[in-house]
Write a structure and sequence with these properties.
The complex is a heterodimer of chains A (91) and B (484). In chain A, 32% of the residues lie in helices and 4% in strands. With 91 residues, chain A is mostly helical. Chain A has a domain at 1-41: Histone, subunit A, CATH 1.10.20. Chain B is α/β, with parallel strands linked by helices. Chain B has one domain (1-232, 249-484): Amidase signature (AS) enzymes (Alpha-Beta Complex), CATH 3.90.1300. Chain B is built from 15 helices and 11 strands. Chain B has helices spanning 6-14, 20-38, 46-61, 103-111, 153-160, 177-183, 217-227, 271-286, 302-317, 336-347, 350-363, 368-392, 415-420, 426-431, 461-474, and strands spanning 41-44, 72-76, 114-119, 166-170, 186-189, 210-214, 257-261, 290-294, 395-399, 435-443, 448-455. Chain B has an 11-stranded mixed β-sheet, with helices on both faces. The chains are: A mainly alpha (91), B alpha/beta (484). Chains A and B meet through α1 and α2 of A and α9, α10, α11, α12 and α13 of B.
Chain lengths: 91, 484
């Protein structure tokens, strides 16, 4: 199984260096080969487990609590002004 | 004084033989003496800790006797603390200051604990050696050229080196138990859902769990009483009654059934590690437990299933690091997309990128069924293995790792070998069951600690605590001191 590292990096918004691409291709090949051992198991009628507690629709009281201010999290942004996040141009 | 357990520290504080300020200063004096060698912390919170200690002394003087009041605790640096940095040992969060506390921090604060600092870890908890840290590596206090384990290696090393009285770590595939084993301390991964994950920086949300790393099982029970329980801020925290874990310390273990999973004892361990683990099991027999053979037939598939599931969840969880809302942003960007790409390329370390790529792969179109769905199905089989085995016994005994702490750099170039270091711990996370590591021996010329792992049914930490405490009453492995 060959991984298209370049395509995956694009999907994950990672700009890998050429050295990383080469290293990861090699290492991922070994890891993928290892995880393919799962194909030895017949899981045709086995339900997948996403979550061990099997919780559904957890509700809480709709009570008003003191929230963070808008500014609290925005202060953590690397670029912000007047209560908004700033980003480079999109188009 | 810094060598005390929580239990001993509380006795000294209650009897006014020691103040919290004195104890906290003693801990910082110890940090000043050994931290250059161990490098367990990412940063200290010295001034705030002294303030907290003073506040604790006021409460003590008024007659309060809470179990953690005035006790210096360290936190793994992925547990959010309002007003001080939470770096996750990643460049991308290097200057991040959370606007709120994790629920466990609020609970520690309410209990009057003193937070001494944040401990080093593998970046985003991805690693088994603490070498994947953007800050520095951490050294094993028992042998400074060896790793403390990971990813909660800083917490385990800090407890072993007495740079705190106890610590919190987090465990996604063994990240509490494996470093506890390598450093000769006690580590408990609670049942998934027992402890709130609110304010724990997410790695793999269906596996992550916060837990105590301590000098004794009794201390782990004390910490669990404070940090455990339903939290409205985390919808996956379980709404089940919280027992008084310290009551389990008096529980009789005679006649309890100890399951020995045969697949763990098929020659995968170094012989001297196996000998220590077997001796540990014999000690529990001598304390009145009955051993029964059990089977966990899918053990061999756990690492593969884990790396699919954990990487998939990590690749989605880490998509939030985009250089917009918080954390690092690359200055080398002229449009939004290359800002994302440059930020993530410069901000994440190599192992984190590897896992994002692997997770993106197993979730990507055309491979989802073959890898991610298959991994989740195998997870079901592993969970069923434990359900079946734990019908035949109360507690399962197993090794924590196949070998003692390895040398710094030894496995860094081979990710698969590093992943396989977690072979004995990973399945408890996949099954969601509680599991604990306690010291059960020392091996080799360097006298390296070995851990014994105890695993139990969902929400049955009390049986692990009962068995672990009786073991520690009968042995002195947990009181041995590293040659620092």
């Amino acid at each position: 199984m060959d991984m298209d590292i370049e395509h995956l990096a694009k999907l994950a918004r990672l700009k890998l260096t050429d050295a990383e691409k080469e290293l990861f291709s090699k290492q991922m090949g070994t890891v993928i080969k290892y995880i393919e051992k799962l194909s030895e198991l017949d899981t045709k009628n086995v339900e997948p487990t996403a979550h061990v507690l099997g919780l559904n629709n957890v509700f809480r009281d709709d009570a008003v609590k003191k929230p963070l201010t808008v500014q609290d999290p925005i202060n953590d942004s690397p670029a912000h002004s007047k209560g908004h996040y700033e980003v480079p141009k999109i188009i | 004084m810094h060598r005390t357990t929580i239990t001993q520290a509380r006795e000294l504080l209650n009897s006014k033989k020691l103040s919290s300020v004195q104890l906290t200063e003693a801990v910082f004096a110890r940090i000043d003496a050994v931290e250059d060698k161990v490098k367990a912390f990412t940063h200290l919170m010295r001034e705030k800790a002294i303030e907290q200690a003073k506040a604790a002394d006021v409460r003590i003087s008024k007659g309060e006797e809470q179990p953690l009041l005035g006790v210096p605790i360290a936190l793994k640096d992925l547990i959010c603390t309002q007003g001080s940095r939470t770096t996750c040992a990643s460049k991308i969060l290097d200057q991040f200051v959370a606007p709120y506390n994790a629920t466990v921090v609020n609970r520690l604060n309410a209990a009057g604990a003193v937070i001494v600092g944040k401990t080093n870890m593998d970046e985003f908890a991805m690693g088994s050696s603490n070498e994947n840290s953007s800050h520095h590596a951490t050294m094993n206090p028992w042998a400074l050229d060896r790793v403390p384990g990971g990813s909660s290696g800083g917490s385990a090393a800090a407890v072993a080196a007495h740079e705190c009285i106890a610590a919190l770590g987090s465990d996604t595939g063994g990240s509490i138990r494996q470093p506890a084993g390598f450093c000769g301390v006690t580590g408990l991964k609670p049942t998934y859902g027992r402890v709130s994950r609110f304010g724990l920086v997410a790695f793999a949300s269906s596996l992550d769990q916060i837990g105590p790393i301590t000098k004794s099982v009794a201390d782990a029970a004390t910490l669990m009483n404070v940090i455990g329980g339903k939290d409205g801020q985390d919808s996956t925290s379980a709404d089940v009654p919280l027992p008084d874990f310290t009551q389990a310390l008096d529980q009789d273990i005679k006649g309890m059934k100890l399951g020995i999973p045969k697949e763990y004892f098929t020659g995968g361990m170094q012989p001297e590690v196996e000998k220590s683990v077997q001796e540990g099991i014999r000690t529990l027999e001598s304390l009145g437990m009955q051993t029964v053979e059990v089977s966990l037939p899918h053990l061999d598939y756990a690492v593969a299933a884990y790396y699919i599931i954990a990487s998939a969840e990590a690749s989605t969880n880490l998509s939030r690091y985009d250089g917009v809302k918080y954390g690092y942003r690359s200055p080398k960007s002229d449009n939004l997309v290359n800002m994302y790409e440059n930020t993530r390329e410069e901000g994440f370390g190599e192992e984190v990128k590897r896992r994002i790529i692997l997770g993106t792969f197993v979730l990507s179109s055309g491979y989802y069924d073959a890898y991610y769905l298959k991994g989740q199905q195998v997870r079901t089989l592993i969970k069923q293995d434990f359900e079946n085995a734990l019908e035949k016994c109360d507690v399962i005994a197993a090794p924590v790792t196949p070998y003692p702490a390895f040398k710094l750099g030894e496995k860094l170039d081979d990710p698969l070998q590093m992943y396989l270091a977690d072979i004995y711990t990973i399945s408890a996370n996949l099954a969601g069951i509680p599991a604990m590591s306690i010291p059960c021996g020392f091996v080799g010329e360097e006298n390296l600690p070995i851990g014994l792992q105890l695993m139990g049914k969902h929400f049955d930490e009390t049986n692990l605590i009962a068995v672990g405490h009786k073991f520690q009453q009968a042995t002195d492995f947990h009181t041995q001191q590293p040659p620092l």
